[in-house]
Each structure stands twice: as C-alpha cells, then as structure tokens.
Amino acid sequence: MDCKQVQRQHRVIMVSDFFYPNFGGVENHIYQLSQCLINLGLKVVVVTHAYGNCTGVRYLTNGLKVYYLPRLPFYQQATIPTLLGWARLLRAICVREGATLLHGHQAFSTMALEACINARSLGLKVVFTDHSLFGFADPGSIVLNKVLKAVLSDVHAVICVSHTSKENTVLRACLPPSTVSVIPNAVDASQFQPDPGATWPSDPIHDDIVLVVLCRLVYRKGVDLLSLVLPEVCNRHPNVRVIVGGDGPKRQLLEKVISDYGLQDRVVLEGPVPHERARDFMVRGHVFVNASLTEAFCMALVEAAAAGLVVVSTAVGGVPEVGWDMCVRQPRVV
C-alpha cells in the first residue's frame, strides 16, 4: 500500500488515558507518532480524559486535535471503568471526524481498552499498542490480563515496543506470536543534540561528575532502589553530584534520604521536567541513570544517548535490547 492509498483510506483516532499535559513515554510516543502521521498527510485526532483545567477540544502542533473528555481518573491517571458509559460520546467523535481506524495505547488505559471494544461495534479498523510489562500472579495483573485477552481477541493488529514486551503480551493475552508485531520506539535525535561545549572531566577522580535521573518517581521506576544506592555512591565518590527530574509519590522517600544522610548539597530534586526541556536538563550532566525494576523499552535511555550522556541502567525487560540497538545501529531517528 503506497502513501497516497494510506492518505485516502485512513483517518486515525488515538485513544489513551495518558497524554499531555501528563509526562511519560506513552504520552511522548502518541504525540510523536501523531506528528509523523500528520506529516504523511493523514488526519489524526487524540482522545483522552481531562487534566485539571485542560478540558474540551484543544489544538497542538500541526493542527493535532485533542479531545479532553470529562472522565474521572482514579489510579495513576487511569479512568474508572464504565465499558459502555462513553460509547455514545466516542461514536459521536468518530462520526464527526470521519474516523476509519482507532489506535489504542497502553494495557493499563481504561479508555483505550473500552475504545477498542466500542470501535469494533462501529465497524472501524482497530490497532492496539502495548507499552509496558505486567505480571501474572498478583490480583490486579490477573484481572487486567483477563480483560486484555478479551479485548485483543477482536482487534486487527497488536504492536509491542520490544521483543520482551511481545513475549509478555503474547502470554498475558493468549495471542499467536505471529499476530503480534514489534516496532521499537523511535526518538527524534535532532531534538537531543549533545552540548557542543560539553566535555568529560579530565580528572574523574577529583573533578565533578553529575549523574542525571529523569523519570516518574514511582515504585516501578526503581526509586526505592535509587534511594538505597545514592547515599553509598555519594559516600564513595565525594566529587559526584546528582540532579533528579520528575515527580510522583516516591518523592517523599528521596527527600527523607537526602535529609537523613545530609545530601542537600549533593542531590537536588528539580520536580517535573516538561519534555521540551528534557534535552536541556540532560546535558547538564555526564551520566544518565535508570534504575527501573520493569521496563518494556525506556525511551529516556535513547534520548540520553542521543544527548551525548553515558547511560547506566538496570538490565530489566527490554532495556538490553535498547542497549544493543544503541551500540550497533545508533539511536533511531524519525
């Protein structure tokens, strides 16, 4: 199918609970994918829930239209399940925009899962992308996996962001492996150029070395592990300083560790960092640290490498794939 055929056939509705002004890999992925599709001549509309005063219809770069619907989040920005509660509203949006394809993102997104079910009843093509790894034993994962199995049994295509993610999704949703595609996340490296004047310290033993952490401060991102490691690193290496970007429920844990060990001059919590400032934040340091306990891909690693930082990460989930790809092929450029 050539580009002209794609332009004639598809008007895409992206659906997820996770989108700007929230920060994260899923949000960045949806935005960047939408921009690429718009540049190809397709019409793209994003549907998500309201974020505070961000409600109604808004327009982003290149005329990307976003519907911020009045749905109530109840846990980590995921909305309360209703199944058919917003089916009529979704139908109205699809009819108004002339939608031909619905693309749901993230297995934890209630809106995405419900939209996939409702879109099939509207006769739309449905694609689903899974961005994270989930377990099999805890009650929450068991329920989610059952729901995911039901939803993905009736979609046209399933995409995962790494081979590890594919294996996880195939097992959780009981899908034939041949029906699931792997499309690794991409980063526009032109937005993450290294600082031309940056140099590695000539004397790493005595000159300051700055570690950079940029993530949501939640358990899954390894903040508990980070809180154990930072005091030891600072104790062993007096020339190391740490800047932490991001916010979340685990911020209080880091604040307590900084206070208990007297690291106020060594570790700085800078709060949320908008994606448009991520590059400027990263190039302030020398080493990017990722302590995630589970990770399907981790776009921040590719962004940090593109910005010229040395990358250190836990070898979990799809991270080894990302590391190998950076070594062999260099960071992907959209």
Automatic annotation (TrEMBL):
<dbReference type="GO" id="GO:0017176">
    <property type="term" value="F:phosphatidylinositol N-acetylglucosaminyltransferase activity"/>
</dbReference>
<dbReference type="GO" id="GO:0006506">
    <property type="term" value="P:GPI anchor biosynthetic process"/>
</dbReference>
<feature type="domain" description="PIGA GPI anchor biosynthesis">
    <location>
        <begin position="49"/>
        <end position="138"/>
    </location>
</feature>
<dbReference type="InterPro" id="IPR001296">
    <property type="entry name" value="Glyco_trans_1"/>
</dbReference>
<dbReference type="Pfam" id="PF00534">
    <property type="entry name" value="Glycos_transf_1"/>
</dbReference>
<keyword id="KW-0328">Glycosyltransferase</keyword>
<dbReference type="GO" id="GO:0000506">
    <property type="term" value="C:glycosylphosphatidylinositol-N-acetylglucosaminyltransferase (GPI-GnT) complex"/>
</dbReference>
<keyword id="KW-0337">GPI-anchor biosynthesis</keyword>
<dbReference type="InterPro" id="IPR013234">
    <property type="entry name" value="PIGA_GPI_anchor_biosynthesis"/>
</dbReference>
<comment type="pathway">
    <text>Glycolipid biosynthesis; glycosylphosphatidylinositol-anchor biosynthesis.</text>
</comment>
<keyword id="KW-0808">Transferase</keyword>
<dbReference type="Pfam" id="PF08288">
    <property type="entry name" value="PIGA"/>
</dbReference>
<feature type="domain" description="Glycosyl transferase family 1">
    <location>
        <begin position="206"/>
        <end position="322"/>
    </location>
</feature>
<protein>
    <recommendedName>
        <fullName>phosphatidylinositol N-acetylglucosaminyltransferase</fullName>
        <ecNumber>2.4.1.198</ecNumber>
    </recommendedName>
</protein>
